[in-house]
Amino acid sequence: MKKIDGGVTAAKGFSAASTAAGIKYKDRMDMAMIYSEKPCKAAGTFTTNIVKAAPVKWDQEVVAGSPYAQAIVVNAGIANACTGAEGYGYCMETAKAAAETLQIPENAVLVASTGVIGMQLPMDRITAGIRAMAPKLSDTLEGGTAASKAIMTTDTVNKEVAVEFSVGGKTVTIGGMCKGSGMIHPNMCTMLSFVTTDLAISKELLTEALREDIKDTYNMISVDGDTSTNDTVLLLANGMAENPEITEKNEDYEAFVKALNIINETLAKKMAGDGEGCTALFEVKIVGAETKEQAVTLAKSVITSSLTKAAIFGHDANWGRILCAMGYSGAQFDPESVDLYFESAAGKLQIIENGVALPYSEEEATKILSEPEVTATADIKMGPCSATAWGCDLTFDYVKINADYRS
After folding, report:
1. Are 256 and 325 members of one domain?
2. Which residues are documented as binding site for substrate?
3. What is the CATH number of the domain that holds 318?
4. pLDDT tens, 226-268?
5. Same domain, yes or no, for 335 and 303?
6. What is the rounded CA–CA span in Å between residue 272 and residue 110?
7. Quick check: 326 and 336 in contact, CB under 8 A?
8. Which of 32, 40, 250, 314 is such that its CA lies 20 to 30 A from the CA of 113?
9. Residue 315: which domain range?
10. What is the pLDDT of residues 256-300, one digit of tens each?
11. What is the per-residue pLDDT for 202?
């Protein structure tokens, strides 16, 4: 198993395109299309926010009820959330336009939107964008990369990854792209992730693999504690690797699960590390937990603590904020048994032992916390379980970005 260059076009049969439709942005690409030359098994996970955007509702129906999916149309700038029946109707219009252009069924088209909540889509621009993209569909690395850039909103970098592995003597490829920078606190942001693979696998196992993996990947990141109306992860498998179809949980299934985890964890960390205004990816590991649930609760409590995030921004080893966040998480543990470490490319330093501060160099701690990727590890000494969560620091720029986001 190895990482390779690429994203959603890495797997056989998948192509992508992008265009500047002028939906909200006037100076950049803002629409993307992903297409498979063969019908795909489709799986998806979606926001648990009660307020769900129209594309989420449309995709839930397609994933659950359609025999297959073959295309995804994405726009940036307008979220098509809180738009009522009109907004849902625009999802239908988008699917119809794509179906007519690509010569596939309407219920084989998935749609996604990201951007400002409450605005209606300019359908003349959406349909024109679809017609513009179809002839430009490309299976090249460049085509996939351009698509990953077109779906960005406040993201500062595009996000894509691909992996190759072997199943039944066949080379299988899985690749993905995502966007997400603010309103990131998945519970399955505006977080969108699209993963494609040429693996042959049953829809049931494809769905189970995705639903299980998001628990340790997308659901373990947080930028600002806000769960979006539009969170969507879509996974398409077209079977063009021609491996024996995976219909049971065997070694081939486990290989796919491992590859899917690499894709999803990489994309999740890219989003956390590109949080709005952030300067550092903040990783929190809880080890020595009695249960996985306990470890997850503690880790997520720390990465969502505004005070802890601010301390990371200030490169300040204010470990009391971490213990405090663990203490109000709702998980039970003995604070007088906790060991805490800070670690980065600049080194590793133990800060507390059994809940009490150790003598340490503030200068060394600041050096460690000044790196672009910082890890805090808390050992609570209760058992064999662990969990890792990812977030980012909280900066002045986060407030600036979100104070005038609509304008």
Report:
1. no
2. 153, 179, 190, 276, 402, 407
3. 3.10.20.340
4. 677 888 999 999 999 999 999 999 999 999 999 999 999 999 9
5. yes
6. 25
7. no
8. 40
9. 281-403
10. 999 999 999 999 999 988 888 889 999 999 999 999 999 999 999
11. 98
Residue 187: which pLDDT band, with cuts at 50, 70 and 90? low
Residue 81 burial class via C-beta count within 10 angstroms: exposed 0-12, middle 13-18, buried 19 and up: buried
- Asked if the structure places residue 276 within a domain, the reply is no
Active site amino acids:
190
Q: Which two tokens stand for residue 89?
A: 């109707």
- CB-facing half-sphere around the CA of 319: CA atoms within 13 A: 24
- CA torsion 377-383-384-385 (nearest 10°) is -60
Percent of the chain with pLDDT over 70: 97
Mark the binding-site residues, compressed into ranges.
Answer: 153, 179, 190, 276, 402, 407
Among 269, 201, 185, residue whose Cα is nearest residue 237: 201
DSSP line for 35-98: EEEEEEEEEEEE---SS--HHHHHHHHHHHH-S-EEEEEEEEEE---S-HHHHHHHHHHHHHHH
| Phi and psi torsions of 277, nearest 5° | 75, 0
User: Given the DSSP bridges, would you call strands 232-237 and 31-46 parallel, antiparallel or unpaired?
Assistant: antiparallel
**Rounded Cα gap, residues 306 and 304, in angstroms:** 6
